[in-house]
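Two records follow; treat each independently.
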Amino acid sequence: MRSGAKVGIVGGVFALVLGGVGYGAYNILDGLGDSGVGGGTSTAADSTEVRSGPVTKEEIADTSKDFLAAWAEGDAAVAAALTNNKADAETALTGYSDTVHVTKAVITPGKATGSTVPYTVKATVSYKGATKSWSYASKLTVVRGLTTGRPLVDWEPSVIHPDLAKGESLETGESSTASIEAVDRNGQVLTKEKYPSLGGILDELRKKYGAKAGGTTGIETWINSANADGINKTLLTLVKGKPGKLQTTLDAKIQAAAERGVKKFAEASVAAVEPSTGAIRAIANNRADGFDAARKGKVAPGSTMKIITAAMIIQNGLGSANAPVQCPATVPWVGVVFHNLNDFSMPSATLKTAFARSCNTAFIKPVLPLGNKRDTALGNEASQYFGLGGDNWQTGIVTTDGSVPESRDAETAASFIGQGKVQMNPLNMASVTATAVNGRFRQPFIVPQSLDNRTFATATPLPPGVSGQLKEMLRYTATAPEGTATQAMASVGPDKGAKTGSAEIDGHATSDSWFTGFSNDLAAAALVQSGGHGGDAAGPVVAEVLRAGP
C-alpha cells in the first residue's frame, strides 16, 4: 500500500484517500471484478513468471485498477510503471498535476469489454485562484508486455484525455490568444456546443483574429497542438476573457442544416458557398477521427470532376452541351480499358445527356484528338478558370485548394472522370459548382478580406456561353428522368442543378459517394466516404443544405 493512503470499501465503492495532501479523495468503483485491490500490490502485475497468450480477465481487472488508483492518487511513477511506455506515460501523468494543475480527481471505471476498460474522470482544475470542475470519459487497454509477459496498460496519450494525440500535451494557464465571439452574417452567435463542426474553425479564427477583434485573454485548459498550424484546442475555461466580436460569412441556418445532413451518414463532410461572392455559408463534418475533411481533405472526387472536364471539352472545340457524343460501354486508352457503370451504353447521346447519366466513356473519348496537350489540358482548365491547384486560397482558415497535376497515359484518362491523381474536398467542389453557375471563380472566404488585407486568389472568367452550357447540363442532371441527381434533388428547387459522383479508392470495398449542386445563390458539395453512389448518400446531405438556403 502506498505511504499515507487510507483504503476502504464502502457500499461497493473502493475508496483511496491520501491523508490530507496531494489530490485528496479518489474513488474507484468496483466495476471490474473482485480480484485485487486498487492501490495495493497486484499478483498479476508483480509476478516473476513470464506469461504468454492473451491477458486474462483477472489481469485486466488488477492492472487497470492499480493504474487508475495510482493515477488518481497522483503517483505518476507507480502508474507509469504499469504501462508499456514508462517514460512517456510518466511525463504525461506528472504533467496532469504539475502542468494541467489538477488538484482532485475521481476516476470511475466501467465494465470491461474484452481487454478495454472505459472510465470517467471528474477532476478539479485550479490555477491562480481560479477553480473549475472538469469531466470527461476515456478508456485504456491492457496488453501483455512483449519481453516481460506482464499485463500492462497499452500507453497512448488518449489514456489521459480522449482528444490527446501523439506529440501533444495538456496545459492550464493564461491563454495566449484573445477570446472571440464569432457571429454569422446576421449577427447570430456561433458556438461549438451548438455547431460541433465549427470547433476547430473557431479555434483557428480565435488564434488568427482574436487580437484584431479586440478580445482579451482568460485562464483555460488546452491541448498543445502537434500540427504544423499550431492551433491549440481549448478543453476547459476557468476564467473567460472578454470576447471580441468577429464577423464571419457563415449562415447559422445553413450551418445547422449542414450539421443535420452529415449526421445522417458516417464519415460525411459538406461545404456550401455563395456563387456570387465566394462567401462560405457552412462547413460540417461527421467523422470518427475528427478530421475536417470538408476543407482539408485530399481525395478523388469521382464524376463531379466532369464539370471541369465538360468545360475543357467545350472550350477546346471538342463538343458542346447539345452536340452528339459517343457513349460506348468501354473505351481503350493507352492499353487500359475504361468502363461505364455496369457497362451501360447510350446509342444516341449528347454531352448533356451523357453528363446526366454520368457516362465515363463520353468524357474520355472526345479528348483523344488533343494529342500531347491532353496530359495538361485538365489541369490548365482547373487552374485558369476554376482557381484550383495553386495552393493560394486565403480563406481566413486553413484549407486545401485542390490538385489537378499533369498526368501520363491511363492516369490522364482517369483524371477526366475524377480519378487518377486528382484530389479534391467538398469546399473545392462547392467552389467548382459555384464557378460554373456564376461564370467566374470567386475565392471562398470565411471572414472579410478587409480584416487583414489578405490577397485573394483569382482566375479568368469562363468564356461567354460556357457557363450557360454548364448550368444547362447541371439543371438537366437534377431534373430529367434519366438524371442521376434527380431523385436526391426532388425536394430542392425550383432553380437547381447537380452532379453525382462515385470514386473508387484503393483498399475500399465500396466507392466514395460524391454530390455537388446548387439552388439559387447557394452551391454545396458533400463527400460520404465508402457511401457508394453519389445520389444515395452524399445527395441527401447536399439537398438538406440547399433547402436551408435562399
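The next record belongs to a different protein.
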Amino acid sequence: MDDLFERSILIVDDEAINREILGNIIQTEYKVLYAENGKEALEKIHSNGSAISLVLLDLLMPVMDGNEVLKTLNEEGIITEIPVIVLTSEKSSEIQSLRLGAADFLTKPYDSPEVILARVRHSIQLFENSKIIHATEFDKLTLLYSPKFFFEYASIFDQRFPDKVMDAVALNFTRFHLLNQLKGRNFGDSILKAMAEGIRKALLKTGGIAGRNEADSFYLYIPHQDDYENLIQKISESLSSLLKPSEIRLRLGVYSDSERSLAMIQRFDHAVQACNSLRSKTSGSSDICIYDDKMAEKEVFDAHLLQDFEAAIEQKQFKVNFQPKFNIKGDKPVLCSAEALVRWIHPELGFVRPDLFIPLFEENGLVTKLDRYVWEESAKQIRQWKDELGITIPVSVNVSRVDIAAPDMTDFITKIVKENGLSPSEYMLEITESAYTSDSKHIIEVVENLRSLGHKVEMDDFGSGYSSLNMLTSMPIDVLKMDKAFITNIQPGNKEMKLVELVLDIAKNLGVPVVAEGVETEEEYKMLKDAGCDIIQGYYFSKPLPPSDFSKFV
C-alpha cells in the first residue's frame, strides 16, 4: 500500500455487530469511520469527503436507506469522487445499486477477511488510477481532451472508421491575449469555457472529438463538412452572453485528408497553418480558411527561408535601408531623422518582401536575432554619417514585444550605442501599440528605463490596436506614430480626416509630436500640414533607401 497518506473508509450499517465485524477487518490497513444510517453517512461524507477513500454502504437501514444515499451522491456528483461498495444479502438489489453508481458489492454473510480486504484494495486502486487518468485525459478548465489524449483518440477514430473522410480543424479566438489583458484572466477563462461549451454542442450534430491544445487554441477532429459557418455560428452563440457580436472574432483553419496520407499531428499542423494565415485579417466577425495547394507551396517556401536564415545573417544578405522623416512645421520640410527597415536580397529568390519573412521569423523565434542585426547595422550607419558628412541623422529602429521580453535587451542597445560613440538621443526606438497592451507593466518598466538613459521612444502603429485613452496617459512615450491606415482615403472633412485630427488633438494634450507614415500624395501632405501634424514619412518624399542614396537628402 502507498503510505504517503492514510486512507479512511466509512462503514455505514444500522447493525452494530456488522459495523464491528467490518471495522475489525478494515482497521488493519485503513482508518475507519462509522455511521448508523444514510442520513448520518451523508453528514460525515459532507464534512470529511476529501479524506474518505471508500464507503461500505448497507442498503437496508432506517431513517435513510442505501439506495437513497446512492441517489443523493449521484445528484451531488460525489459518486464520481468517492467509490461505494454496497453491502447486501439480496441478489436482486445488486443490479439496481450498480446502476446508481456503486463500484462493487459485498454479499452477506461476509467472505473471509482476506477477500474483503482484497476487494476494498481493488476498488480503491481502480478508482485512484481512474482519477489520475482523468486528470491527464481532460483539460481542467474546458473539460475537453488534453493534447496527448486528443491525438490518441483521433488515431483510434481512424482505425474504427477507415472509410470516413475526416477533417482536422484548428480554432482560436483572434487577439485573445489582448482580451485577457484588458478584462482580466478570469474573464478570459470564462471565454474559453464558453467556447468549449459551444464546441460540445456543435459536436452533437457533426460527431467527432475535440481538445484544447493551449491558451485559446482548440482542435477538432470531425467528419468532413462542406460548410463550416454553422460550426462558427454555434460557438459564437455560446459567447453571446459574454461579448458583443462585434467583439467575437473567431478564426478556423481546416485540413481535409481523404486518403489519410499524413500522420495525425501533421494534419493538424496544416490546419494551424491555415488558421494562422487569417491572423492579419480584421474584417468580419469570423474567418475560415481551408488548407490548399497554395498553402502547401507557401509551407515549402517558408521552410526554405527558415533554412537559409543563419547564412543570410552571416553573409549580410539582409540590407538595412533608411526611410527619411521630414519635419513639416516650418515653411519648408526639413530632414529630421530616419527609420531603419530591413530588406532581404536572397541569392536564389532575389528580393523577398518583408511581409513574407518577418511574421515567419516572429512565429519561429528568429525575429530577435534579425532585429539585433538591424540594430547593429543602424548604429554603425549613424556613426558613418557622422564621420563622412559631419552631421547626426537620428535613426529609429523597430523593437518587438519579443525583443522586450529578452532580459538583456537594454544592455545590448547600450553596448552598441557606446561601441559606435553615439549618444542615446541619436538612437530612437519604435515600439508598436499592441506591444504595450500585451504586457503593459513589464514593457512600461523597460521603456521608462530606456528613456532614463536618454533614448526617445515612439509608439508605432498608434490606432491599430486596443489601447484605451486611460492606458495612453500611463504609457511612457516621446512620439506618437500614426498608423498609415489613418492616412489612406483622407479628404477634407471626411470621417478619416476627423480621426486624424482627433489623434493630433490627443498628442497635443499629451505634449508629444506626431509622425504620419504612409504619406504618398501632395494632397495628403497639405492636409496633414494644415491639421498641425509635426513629422511626415512616406513615398511622397522617398521610399526606403540604401545608405549611399540616402545622403542626397542631407
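Discussion point: Confidence is low (pLDDT under 50) at residues 281-285. How would you locate this feature using only the C-alpha cell line?
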